[in-house]
C-alpha cells in the first residue's frame, strides 16, 4: 500500500473477493523525515500514514517493511551507474523487477502468503492450457502493463491486479470516496520517487563528478563543450548551450552519449530515427514463444506512455551474444540505450529487453570513435 488511491481500492477489492489480506507499506527512503510535495515523490512519511488510515477503514492488519537498503543498491545505485555509463535507465522497471515483485514477493511467500496485490492498471488472464498471461488494462489511458513487462512467469502466477478491468481512474476515485478513504482525491505521484524535486541533472551531479568534454556533430566536428555528460540523454534538445547554429537553422538534439571519450554527439531531429533495437538482457512475461529464434509479428513499446508500434522480433544467437532483436515497421524516434522495449501480442505482454544496441535509420558519412555509419553499435543511440 503506497499511500495512494489505487492501492487502497485494490486492497479493499481483494478483501471483498474473499482473500485474507494484510496491508504492507514499503519504506524505501533512508530519510524518514521526508514529506511529499504535491504530486512529487512517494513512499514518504505522509504516504505511510495515508496507507495506514486506509487499512484501518478496510479493517486489515498493516505493517511497514523496511526495504531501503535493497532499494538503494538495486534501484538508486543502478540508476547512477547506468547514467555514468551513458545510458538512460527506467527506475520504475528496476523497482518492479527487484523490489515489489522480487524482494517483497519472496518475503511474502516465505511468510505463507499466496500473492502480492498492487494497484497497477494491468490484467492477468488464463489461456486454454491454464497458463497465466499479463495483459493491458481495460483503460488504455492508465494502462501500466509496460512497467510490469519485467515480470516472469512465476511472478505473474503470484500477482493480482484488482484494478485491471476498471474502465477509468475516475471510477476508482469515486469508489475510494464512497469507502471514506482520505486519499480519494490525492494527486498521482510522478517523476522519479527518489528525486522528488525533479532535478535529475542536479541530483546526478552530486553523485557523479562532472567532467568537461566536447559536444560533437555526427562528422566529429567540435561544436562546443559540456560541463558533464552524465545527465544528457538521447533525444534531449534543451541545455546543449551550443553557440554555433546549425547550417539549416533547425535545432539539434542529443544523438549519443559516449562515456569513454566523455563526448556528446548532437544532430538534426531526423537522425534520431532508429530502424532496429536489440538487447541481450531479455525476459518472457509468462509462457515463452515456442520458437523465439523464428521471427514473429508483434508490437513494441519503448516508453510507459508511448504508442505501441508494429514490429518483427526474434532471438538472435551468434558467437558473441544472444539477444532479442526488434525491427519496427517504421523507425522509432529518440531511443536511448538503457530504455526498456516491451513486446506485445495484441493486449498480451510477451516480454521485454533492456536496449543496449540500436541501428540508425539515417546514414552518415562518418561517425567518430571508430564506428561505421548505419551499422549496429553497442551502447549507441545514433
Automatic annotation (TrEMBL):
Residues 287-355 form the tRNA-specific 2-thiouridylase MnmA-like C-terminal domain. InterPro entries: MnmA-like, MnmA-like_C, MnmA-like_central, MnmA-like_central_sf, Rossmann-like_a/b/a_fold. It is found in: Cytoplasm. Keywords: ATP-binding, Cytoplasm, Disulfide bond, Nucleotide-binding, RNA-binding, Transferase, tRNA processing, tRNA-binding. The keyword ATP-binding applies. Pfam families: tRNA_Me_trans (PF03054), tRNA_Me_trans_C (PF20258), tRNA_Me_trans_M (PF20259). This is tRNA-specific 2-thiouridylase MnmA. It comes from Cryobacterium psychrophilum. The gene is mnmA.
Amino acid at each position: 500500500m503506497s499511500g495512494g488511491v489505487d492501492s487502497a481500492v485494490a486492497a479493499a477489492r481483494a478483501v471483498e473477493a474473499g482473500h485474507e489480506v494484510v496491508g504492507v507499506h514499503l519504506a524505501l527512503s533512508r530519510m524518514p523525515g521526508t514529506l511529499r510535495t504535491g504530486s512529487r515523490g512517494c513512499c514518504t512519511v505522509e504516504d505511510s500514514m495515508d496507507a495506514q488510515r486506509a487499512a484501518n477503514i478496510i479493517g486489515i492488519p498493516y505493517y511497514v517493511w523496511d526495504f531501503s537498503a535493497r532499494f538503494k543498491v538495486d534501484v538508486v545505485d543502478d540508476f547512477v551507474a547506468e547514467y555514468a555509463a551513458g545510458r538512460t535507465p527506467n527506475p520504475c522497471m528496476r523497482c518492479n523487477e527487484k523490489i515489489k515483485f522480487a524482494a517483497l514477493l519472496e518475503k511474502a511467500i516465505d511468510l505463507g502468503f499466496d500473492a502480492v496485490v498492487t494497484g497497477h492498471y494491468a490484467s492477468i488472464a488464463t489461456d486454454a492450457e491454464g497458463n497465466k498471461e499479463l495483459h493491458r488494462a481495460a483503460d488504455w489511458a492508465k494502462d501500466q502493463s509496460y512497467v510490469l513487462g519485467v515480470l516472469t512467469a512465476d511472478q505473474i502466477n503470484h500477482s493480482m491486479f484488482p484494478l485491471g478491468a476498471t474502465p477509468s481512474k475516475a471510477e476508482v476515485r469515486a469508489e475510494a470516496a464512497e469507502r471514506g478513504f482520505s486519499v480519494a482525491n490525492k494527486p498521482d505521484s510522478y517523476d522519479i520517487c527518489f528525486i522528488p524535486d525533479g532535478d535529475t541533472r542536479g541530483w546526478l551531479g552530486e553523485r557523479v563528478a562532472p567532467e568537461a568534454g566536447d559536444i560533437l556533430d555526427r562528422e566529429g566536428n567540435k561544436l562546443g563543450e559540456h560541463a558533464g555528460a552524465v545527465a544528457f540523454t538521447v533525444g534531449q534538445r534543451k541545455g546543449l548551450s551550443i553557440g554555433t547554429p546549425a547550417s539549416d537553422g533547425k535545432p539539434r538534439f542529443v544523438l549519443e552519449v559516449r562515456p569513454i571519450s566523455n563526448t556528446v554527439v548532437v544532430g538534426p531531429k531526423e537522425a534520431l530515427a532508429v530502424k532496429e533495437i536489440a538487447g541481450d538482457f531479455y525476459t518472457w512475461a509468462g509462457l515463452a514463444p515456442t520458437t523465439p529464434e523464428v521471427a514473429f509479428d508483434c508490437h513494441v513499446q519503448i516508453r510507459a506512455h508511448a504508442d505501441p508500434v508494429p514490429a518483427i522480433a526474434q532471438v538472435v544467437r551468434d558467437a558473441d551474444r544472444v539477444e532479442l532483436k526488434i525491427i519496427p515497421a517504421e523507425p522509432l524516434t529518440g531511443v536511448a540505450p538503457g530504455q526498456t522495449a516491451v513486446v506485445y501480442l495484441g493486449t498480451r505482454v510477451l516480454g521485454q529487453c533492456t536496449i543496449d544496441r540500436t541501428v540508425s535509420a539515417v546514414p552518415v558519412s562518418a561517425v567518430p570513435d571508430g564506428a561505421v555509419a548505419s551499422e549496429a553499435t553497442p551502447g549507441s543511440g545514433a
